Amino acid sequence: MEPEYHVFASLLISLAFFLVTKSLFASLLCLIVGIFIDTDHIIDYLIDKRRVPTIKQFFDYFYSKKYERIRVLFHSLEFTPLIFLASRWLFGLVPAYGIMAGFLSHMALDYIGNRPRPFTYFLTYRIIVGFKADMLVRTKK
Known about the structure:
By secondary structure, the chain is mostly helical. The longest helix has 21 residues. Helices cover 67% and strands 0% of the residues. α1 runs antiparallel to α2 and α1 packs antiparallel against α6. It has one domain.
């Protein structure tokens, strides 16, 4: 899913989270996590192209969706319990819920918008299929 959708959705979800919890810190964590999970696409670009992109090069690459491999380390549902436990230990319960709300809403939007195969957002599965894009995302017919 394109970044602008994640930004908009993360703003709405973090606002709703703030209205429920009254925790500005937890809401900011929700917003930050909901948006910045996508920084792992930069890692993919660096691995594929072996150079630091300009902003235009990165977004052209990102929007073209012509990559052969999809690694996206941060998009890994196996990390959910670890993220929650680490967040709770570092920040407390309400901020941990904020982080989880940001993470899980991002992942839900990616499932809706990216046409992934069912196990695409499990790192184990991506490793098994060699990170091959055609094994991870359904092509449009």
